[in-house]
Amino acid sequence: MEVLDGPPFDLAVYRGKLVFVNIFATWCGPCRAEQPAVVTFAKEHADDTVVIGMNYKEEDTDVRAYRKKFDIPYPIAMDRRGAVLAGVYSGAKILFPMTIVIRPNGALWCAWAGDVNLAWLERERDDALAATATS
Fold it and tell me: CATH code at 37?
């Protein structure tokens, strides 16, 4: 996938790291409400956790304004045609926001539809890392 103002996104590059993918739309109220927590989480764990945003079918200018408004420090992958989420949902209603957590071994840890807060992000990070250490 293309990344807004950056190199292409390839999840395989992050193998060996804990990855949070935050799927959002700029017009989504719950997405906007959770964004400060996601940004804080990304900044607090910049050395040990990868956070990637994924925007759903919006114009670059709108996503740039959103990135600037919330001071988003991580890359934003652009699902320009909705192909990624359409493949996941195959016709079902897509809910925003959604956060997907992928363990360092590449296994899905969780996928959460709905807004999150900092406590949720920290708990899922700790649990995913603990599960990785024991598996």
Answer: 3.40.30.10
Q: Is 57 left (phi over 0), alpha (psi -120 to 50) or beta?
A: left
- Name residues whose C-beta falls within 8 Å of residue 134's C-beta, 6 or more positions apart in sequence: none
The whole model's pTM is what?
0.90
Q: How many domains does the chain have?
A: 1
Domain that holds residue 124: 2-7+15-134
pLDDT band at 10 (very low <50, low <70, confident <90, very high): confident
Sheet hosting strand 98-102, strand order edge to edge: 2-3, 76-79, 49-56, 18-24, 98-102, 108-113
